[in-house]
Design goal:
Thrombin, subunit H; four-stranded antiparallel β-sheet; 1 helix; mainly beta
Length: 118
């Protein structure tokens, strides 16, 4: 499992699709959250999640983005599914980029900008 560290917590995705937050000193789990959408991409052990502004953003295999509270793992929002018709959409590794209040989902040949409501 690959982890992202932020503010004394490691965040990662297990091959079974579980998103986990753990203390960076003790390794004790703080929370876990599951989404079946994640499982397809986590088999390689890489973690496409991004942490910013107290939120953990995770791409879904259906073209959606899941946003969890970094401190509790509560699901804050989930975007609608977006299908990419390009041939590479399902094979390419998804990406998440965050700039200001925009969340960018990158899959296949498509970049989608999302502006979540507060």
């Amino acid at each position: 499992m690959e982890y992202v560290e932020s503010g004394g917590t490691y965040y990662g995705m297990a091959p079974d699709g579980t998103v986990t937050a753990a203390d960076d000193v003790t390794g004790e789990p703080r929370w876990t959250a599951e989404s079946w959408y994640l499982k397809e991409w986590t088999r390689s052990g890489k973690s496409p999640l991004r942490v910013a502004d107290g939120r953990v953003h995770v791409p879904g295999t259906d073209g959606s983005v899941h946003c969890f509270a970094a401190d509790s793992g509560d699901l804050l929002w989930q975007s609608a599914a977006r299908q990419d018709d390009s041939a590479n959409a399902r094979r390419d590794w998804p990406g998440i980029a965050i700039h200001g209040d925009l969340v960018y989902l990158l899959t296949g040949d498509t970049v989608v900008a999302l502006r979540p409501r507060a």
